[in-house]
Amino acid sequence: MNPLTRVYAVASGKGGVGKSTVTVNLAAAIAGMGRAVGIIDADIYGHSVPRMLGVTAEPTQVDGVIVPPAAHGIKVISIGLLTKGNAPVVLRGPMLHRVLKQFLSDVYWGDRDVLLVDLPPGTGDIALSLAELVPDAELVIVTTPQLAAAEVAERAGAITKQTHQRIAGVVENMAWLPCPHCDEKIDVFGSGGGQSVADALSAPLLGQVPVDLRLREQSDAGVPLVLADPDTPAARELLAIGTELDARGRGLAGRQIGLTPVRRS
Question: Which InterPro entries does the UniProt record give (predicted)?
Fold first, then answer.
């Protein structure tokens, strides 16, 4: 993997908050800006990225290197592309580390500008392995407005105190439901959860994505909403978040680049 690739690890405290949906749409949004983008589906037991991107082709091997398939301009690797049908994945902790390491080092990513890693919920083996293998990866925390979800998301983000990673920001998904008869916003799942997590983690609130049935429909259809219907409120918010993440140049600040001073004679 190119050392200048910007890596965003998309995390959540619990399942069901739309983490993978956010990951796929952010990837499509950034790719739509002309960037070279890849996704590692690191949710080994609950992989869903291939379905959401409509990827069915298996990775190929060339001279011992794994060449990932691509969809919508996004390269993708997932354990779901390496198993038959809907077979369950049964792996112990050390094997999870090996799989993630292989996805990072044995897959030909090329010169990706951005790599998104869809983490499993919580702070288990995969999250710790990613921190070890890619210490420069920045976390994007996904939560819903609900207090219970926000509290768990805060714990997921607090892992950075141990791993010394940065938090790029917080995304509040299912933030509100547009009233079909007026301009009011209905707080179906409460309000304030995203801002609460952002404040607790001293991170920016990147955006609030409203509830939109088409997000689910497009995920099932394998075409991200930001591509299928970019003018919807949810798509516009996801595009804005993607623009914000894309604007953060990788840069060399704080990185060791292996230069040796030359003495002048």
Answer: Mrp/NBP35_ATP-bd, NUBPL-like, P-loop_NTPase, YlxH/NBP35
Based on C-alpha coordinates, what's the Rg of the chain? 19
The DSSP code for 107 is B
Contact 194, 208 (CB under 8 A): yes
pLDDT in tens, 215-233: 999 999 999 999 999 999 9
Both tokens assigned to 141: 């925390």
Q: How far apart are CA 160 and CA 169, in angstroms?
A: 12
Is this structure's pTM higher than 0.70?
yes
Structural element, H or E, at residue 217: helix 213-221
Cα–Cα dist 30/74, whole Å: 10
Which residue, among 44, 55, 43, has the nearest Cα to 18 in the 3D structure?
A: 43
- H or E stretch at 235: helix 233-246
Judge whether 85 is annotated as a binding position.
no
Q: For residue 15, say whether it is annotated as part of any ligand binding site.
A: yes
Two structure tokens written together for 128: 């710790």
The answer to whether the annotation marks 254 as part of a ligand binding site is no
Q: How far apart are CA 108 and CA 67, in angstroms?
A: 5
Q: Beta 114-118 vs 37-41: how paired, if at all?
A: parallel
What's the rounded Cα separation, in Å, for the pair 125 and 120? 9
State both tokens at 239: 């595009």
Q: Is residue 16 part of an annotated ligand binding site?
A: yes
Q: Can you list the domains of the chain with their CATH numbers?
A: 10-246 (3.40.50.300)
CB 143 within 8 A of CB 189: no
* Mean of all residue pLDDT scores within the chain: 91
Asked if residue 75 belongs to a known ligand binding site, the reply is no
Q: What is the pLDDT of residues 82-96, one digit of tens each?
A: 887 777 787 787 899
pLDDT of 250 > 60? The answer is no
In this prediction, residues 6-30 reach a mean pLDDT of 97
